[in-house]
Amino acid sequence: MKDKIFMMLLGIIGTSGLLFYSVVAGAQTAPSPNANFDGLKITLCGTSSPLPAPGRAQACVAVETPDHLYIVDAGSGSAATAQLSGIPLDKLRGILLTHYHSDHISDIGDFNLNSWVAGRPAPLQIIGPEGVERIVEGLNITYELDRGYRVAHHGAELLNPELGVLHSRTIGEEVIVDEDGLRITAFKVSHPPIEPAYGYRLDYGGRSVVISGDSLVTDKIVALSDGADVVLHDAMALQLVQGIEAMSRGAGNTRLATVLHDIQDYHATTANLVRLVAEAEVGQLALYHLVPAPRNAMAIAAFKGGLPDGAIITEDGMVISLPANSKEIMVD
Ligand SMILES: [Zn+2]
Ligand SMILES: [Zn+2]
After folding, report:
1. Which of 72, 93, 106, 214 is least enclosed, having the fewest CB within 10 Å?
2. Ligand 2: centre distance to CA 101 (Å)
3. pLDDT tens digits for range 114-156
4. Arithmetic mean of pLDDT over the chain
């Protein structure tokens, strides 16, 4: 009951309020609703793409084990969605970036603040391919004044200044984490002209999830997805994007029409996704980074046309649980 009241308060007051609540009530962390769950717990903290959609943040997937929390990408609005979903941010070890398009990085600052307030015991690692050190250097400068205000207001005992500074880690195509039963493998995907762009596979307790980032379906994704319990894949409804392009061109908005035309060659189409499940044994295909995110029943029907049977179109706040050493896949 106490936890429920805390989460309600959290929903009402938000981050700045949380700082106040933390100081007044002595609360250090948001409670984890699934503290005793052993397995991989995947929460969709953002399912949209740069085309805006009400109720959806941009790309973000949280993956939790009893000992770890990693976030894959941090698009606009995703830090708030993560907090409202009750993800235990005090456990956050790192943010894995797939690439540096703005819809994957714009909420890093908020994740850093929220996890610092929640009581994260070590600096937040920002992990990604070449270029991540520039992102982190820029963010640390951008938020330098904010960090100073927070420490001055709440004290260094609550907010250790060293824990507010982001650390960067540049990775290659390799196993990047192998600790306490969790293995994370980074792999190259196809999202031209971005080079390199990565996806990640996380394995724990005999369970696995592959997260594509932004990509066409490639041979490598097919190989890594074979035998995976869950594949979260970028998905574009080509017929919808082409329709909006034609309407934009007809209305004389050639700039928008050009952008909508250009994006058609670097996201997975429904035809690509059919190939994925035909060639790989996938427990559950779940689509995110929806281009465009469907906003009503008609758009959902249009998006689903041509998708492989059983594919899920994810929503913000959706949780997929994979209990350790079982075959069970629970979607809430
Ligand atoms: Zn994107
Ligand atoms: Zn992208």
Report:
1. 106
2. 5
3. 999 999 999 999 999 999 999 999 999 999 999 999 999 999 9
4. 90
Question: 154-212, pLDDT tens digit by residue?
Answer: 999 999 999 999 999 999 999 999 999 999 999 999 999 999 999 999 999 999 999 99
Residue ranges per structural domain of the chain: 34-331
| Residue 61 CA, ligand 2 centroid: distance in Å | 15
What is the Rg, in whole angstroms, of the alpha carbon atoms belonging to the chain? 20
Tens of pLDDT, residue by residue over 31-70, are 454 568 999 999 999 999 998 899 999 999 999 999 999 9
Greatest extent of the chain over all pairs of C-alpha atoms, in Å: 60
Ligand 2 mean position to 155 CA, how many Å?
39
The CA distance from 137 to 143, in Å, is: 10
CATH of domain 34-331: 3.60.15.10
Query: Sign of the C-alpha dihedral, residues 302, 305, 307, 308?
Result: positive
SS3 state of residue 247: helix
Q: Which pTM was predicted? A: 0.90
Q: Cα(77) to centroid of ligand 1, in Å?
A: 14
Contacting residues for 281 by C-beta, under 8 A, at least 6 apart: 226, 227
Which of 183, 196, 59, 73 lies closest to 126 in space, CA to CA?
73
Stretch 302-329: mean pLDDT, rounded? 93
Q: How far is CA 136 from CA 52, 124, 143, 166, 306, in A?
A: 26, 11, 10, 6, 40
Residues less than 5 Å from ion ligand 1, measured at CB: 101, 103, 214
- Active-site residue flag, 103: yes
At 257, is the pLDDT very low, low, confident or very high (cuts 50, 70, 90)? very high
Describe the chain by its helix, strand, coil percentages, rounded to 5. Answer: 35, 25, 35
